[in-house]
Amino acid sequence: MMQPDTRWYPVAQSSDLTLRHVFHGQLLGVELALWRDDEQRVNAWENRCPHRSVRFTLGVNLGSRLRCQYHGWQYQGGDGRCTLIPAASQSTPPASVCARTFAVSEAHGMIWVNLQAQQAQELPAAALPPLALHLRSLPFQAALDDVRQALAGYAQLDPDCQLDSVQLQQTDNSLQLSWRSAEQPCQVQFWLQPASAERTIVHSSTLAGRPGVDPLRWHNRILNVLRQRLENQAGLIATSRPPDSLRIAPTPVVRRPAQTLEVEVLQHWTTASEIVALKLALPADGGFSFEAGAHIDVHTPGGLVRQYSLVNAPDEREHLVIGVKLEAQSRGGSRSMHHDLKAGERLRISAPKNNFRLVPGTAGILIAGGIGITPLLAMGAALQAAERPYELHYFVRSESHVAFPERLHQLRHNCIHTGLDPQQTRERLRIVLQQASAGTHLYVCGPKALIDLVSTLASEAGWSDSQVHFELFANEVSHDHDQPFRVRLQRSGEEFTVAAGVSLADSLKARGITLDTSCEQGVCGTCRTAVVDGEPEHRDVYLTREERQANRCLMPCVSRSKSELLVLDL
Description:
By secondary structure, the chain is an alpha+beta fold. The chain folds into five domains: 9-114, Rieske [2Fe-2S] iron-sulphur domain (Rieske Iron-sulfur Protein, 3-layer Sandwich), CATH 2.102.10.10; 133-228, Kinase associated domain 1, KA1 (TATA-Binding Protein); 265-349, Translation factors (Elongation Factor Tu (Ef-tu), domain 3); 364-376 and 394-471, Rossmann fold (3-Layer(aba) Sandwich), CATH 3.40.50.80; 485-568, Ubiquitin-like (UB roll) (Roll). The protein is 16% helix and 30% strand. The protein is built from nine helices and 34 strands. Strands 11, 12, 13, 14, 15 and 16 form a six-stranded antiparallel sheet that branches. Strands 20-19-22-17-18-21 form a six-stranded antiparallel sheet, with helices on one face. It starts with 8 loop residues before the first strand and ends with a strand.
């Protein structure tokens, strides 16, 4: 069985990866999409969107994501995770939808790629030091071994070469030659990129050159002479043979983030009445990729799992910042975060999740109540950095309840509404919504009463459901009138009864069915399950009105069944 090639190869010059460009490369028969994000990090992906296999090089580099030109799916830099499916913009894309990524490194003015990302070692220090002047990269229609052999005689094409001065150093995919020409030292280095079995791209560098000689023109002329001789040799070009088709890289095993990871609490301070802020260290092996609106699951010292939004601005990726309100009816989650935690201690958290994204390229009105300010601070900072129009309206009981005032002051378009009664709040919101420009999107986070009020006023003002976005982290569900119902698992045919007072999620887990849960309140969407038949009784606050009416899914942590039998796609 052929062993995979775990070597590093050059695939482009650093200068090829210009601002907001996607460079088309090829290595060992695999097409590559090479791009640099706005923070100067280089990505090397298979040049194929997982959705319909359209080339990424036909798409758009958005600075932190690539957008496929066909259906607009977007993939974030780094791990290649899909972050947006326009046809389902309010749903989090499945974790399995990822661009195929490769190990990539930038060194010596070159971009290096290893196709075996999981087996790749660090890029070794170059055996041959880079030279000062990079030459134009040239493709040779010949195999790598033939090109390397031809380049070994490169100095002999210099008519003034002193043959006894020629020195050659070489590795599997690089050569360095030095010689004397007309009593002047000459030196050239080649790196070889096997684009395919019969095509090799030669990257080269040289010294500044002799006085009166343009080194770029001089070496380009010699390389072209050598290329023509090599390609004209019998057997190296089979004109009657059809060209090789590019192969698709094997489907990778999706590297899902760990269920939880341990982080250190760097800071713990009071930011408002009943609200503490925490700064958490990012893991030592690198930061997360996340956007405004993201949240994390936190395993609190009290033993409960709670969700907290990230406050981070777009340029703040060295740590995570969250805010925690002390709930009056706390069962130990928020209370333990306030009283049982201090700087230097450790917490277990999940990787960031996002069910509350900004719609790209649109203006936004951000409405926050109380602790609901946390994701909207991140959104306001993101909109301001992107130079998109926005307004932030923050409703609080008093000035002492204003959280993260230092971050609010950095936002140019914020308005704090203090101490309003319900009628005053209604009138203030009505004015805000009526004055909004066409195409603006509305983002709301806070108590359920505030979200319900904003949703009602927006509907009355003619806003479409697709323009109104909200996020809740609490959902009061009554079980006083629960009724038992039967469940059938479509894939196994197993049937069982869910008793009154017992959640569908707990019943599934009791039968050994794997089901991820997090909030257990119908808020986060983690346990979303497909429905094949029957009518769910939706009790969540995650699904949209259209998704509830379609009855094709439910949140088993809180929802039940109106019909006697509910058939699940499990």
